[in-house]
Amino acid sequence: MKQDIILAGVGGQGILSIAAIIGLAALEKDLFIKQAEVHGMSQRGGSVQSHLRISSSKIASDLIPFGEADMILSVEPMESLRYPPYLSADGWIITNTTPFVNIPDYPDLDKLLAQIKSYKNVVVINADEIAKKNGSPKSSNVVLLGAASRYLEIPFENLENGIRTLFDRKGEDVVNKNLTALKAGMESILLEK
Could you read off the pLDDT of 70-101 as tens digits, one per residue? Predict the structure, then answer.
């Protein structure tokens, strides 16, 4: 088993939480993981990229080479278009449709989404809307992870346990909201198929 994932978005959108949930789930399955926070992590509103590598055998490098990413998981649509050179021929782009407009010349959203959908394997969902419908607007990152769960080589139950471990100190209500968000994201993909 080997899976290379690029997490992309804007500072403050929960990229580190996604990485932590996947990482905890992978560790529970006794998998090796490496994560590289390449840039932007500390700047709210700035571009964020993180490489997450998961494998059943040891991993030499924490950076994903061009053309080898199995997934680009992006919490912001424009950010997903920064990383297609990393994507493998059969890789997936999974992105939120809600833009984080932090520049004056942000591209037209319809054109942006059309460009994203021009790639071979794409899942585009409105994670923000799904999170709001489930009563937890701050959990759109976990909704997106739920959508991606169908394409991850880690069982859904392990992702749920990753959420429990990560958010346990914040209390049962936060844990349950994130578990609901994960399930809602996964179900949004099942409804489309």
Answer: 999 999 999 999 999 999 999 999 999 999 98
pTM: 0.93
Residues whose CB is less than 8 angstroms from the CB of residue 102 and which lie 6 or more positions away in sequence, other chains included: 10, 45
d(CA 40, CA 46): 6
CB atoms within 10 A of CB 88: 16
Torsion angles phi and psi, residue 47, rounded to 5: -65, 135
| Rounded CA separation 95/18 (Å) | 13
The DSSP code for 160 is: H
Going from the N-terminus, what domains does the chain have, and what CATH number goes with each? 2-192 (3.40.920.10)
Q: In sequence order, which residues have a C-beta less than 8 Å from that of residue 80 and are 6 or more positions away?
A: 8, 72, 74, 93, 95, 116
Look at residues 109, 121, 111, 102 and name the one whose alpha carbon lies nearest to residue 44.
Answer: 102
